[in-house]
């Protein structure tokens, strides 16, 4: 990781494009922004939007928060049209809200624990009032290699849909890294850091779905940054690995790689293995709830 492991790292800093998301600062804290995500409406306050990861905000508002025609604000009942998976956003909102609601009840208990990973090492007194959330996203593009000659377009489309169903079933978060997680590799370092911070080796993607009319599968996984890591329980190395994740707060990082796979028992390809090229893009970012 560039932010955590040097220039040879498999995760590099994302060079964000598009307009700055700072335009959210022009919206009043109490103002509600209504979005229409593929027919599903969401009404969120500015404060709740600002808790979301930066790369998610850039996906929701690729042309800026105030597109042409909205520079003067919003008309009551008006909604911004957003091409984004509503189920993915709902999964994220549910997780963030659950964590936010748990902070007051945990503040007094975690405040006195020694060795707890602080969200801000320089201000331990306030860290018990905050919670870190690890946000991991995978964008998987796949390309099907025809299993026979002279395939018609309609047949090709059906095979792609069947391949998508097979790939959706491969929902282990780290399954795409298992081929190269030997000790000492950058992949192993990435897995070690994420499992020290909050994930488990056998975790599944919290949300995984195909994009409409595209050979693309988008996955999202969230984990609360562990606040129970103590040096006498997991070792100082685990504490250090978990703290490295804080380097990705408001600094999304990306890792991209290709792999070739063979899928068994794909509908329409009976008796043969279907060869598929996959391009995976992982985006990693930290969010902090309770930070003002």
TrEMBL record:
InterPro entries with a match to the protein in the record: SKP1/BTB/POZ_sf
One Gene Ontology term of the molecular function aspect: RNA binding
Stretch list, region Disordered: 1-26
GO CC aspect terms: nucleus
Ranges of Polar residues composition bias in the record: 1-16
Domain of life: Eukaryota
Signal sequence interval, chain numbering: none
Protein name according to UniProt: WHI2-like protein P4H10.16c
Origin species: Lasiosphaeria miniovina
């Amino acid at each position: 990781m560039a932010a955590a492991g040097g220039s040879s790292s498999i995760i590099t800093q994302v060079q964000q494009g598009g307009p700055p998301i700072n335009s959210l600062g022009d919206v009043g804290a109490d103002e509600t922004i209504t979005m229409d995500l593929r027919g599903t409406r969401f009404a969120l306050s500015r404060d709740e939007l600002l808790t979301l990861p930066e790369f998610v905000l850039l996906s929701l508002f690729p042309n800026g928060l105030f597109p042409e025609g909205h520079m003067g604000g919003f008309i009551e009942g008006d909604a911004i049209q957003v091409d984004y998976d509503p189920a993915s956003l709902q999964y994220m909102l549910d997780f963030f809200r659950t964590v936010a609601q748990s902070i007051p009840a945990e503040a007094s208990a975690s405040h006195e624990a020694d060795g707890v990973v602080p969200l801000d090492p320089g201000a331990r007194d306030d860290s018990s009032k905050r919670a870190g959330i690890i946000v991991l996203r995978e964008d998987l593009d796949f390309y099907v290699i025809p299993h026979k000659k002279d395939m018609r377009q309609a047949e090709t489309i059906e095979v792609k849909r069947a391949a998508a169903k097979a790939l959706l079933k491969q929902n282990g978060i780290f399954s795409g890294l298992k081929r190269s997680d030997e000790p000492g590799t950058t992949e192993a370092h990435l897995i070690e850091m994420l499992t020290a911070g909050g994930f488990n080796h056998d975790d599944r993607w919290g949300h995984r779905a195909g994009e409409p009319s595209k050979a693309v599968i988008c996955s999202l996984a969230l984990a609360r940054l562990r606040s129970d890591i103590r040096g006498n329980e997991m070792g100082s190395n685990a504490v250090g690995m978990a703290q490295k994740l804080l380097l990705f707060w408001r600094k999304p990082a990306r890792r991209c790689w290709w792999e070739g796979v063979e899928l068994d028992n794909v509908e329409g390809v009976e008796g043969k293995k279907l060869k598929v090229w996959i391009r995976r893009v992982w985006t990693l970012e930290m969010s902090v709830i309770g930070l003002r």
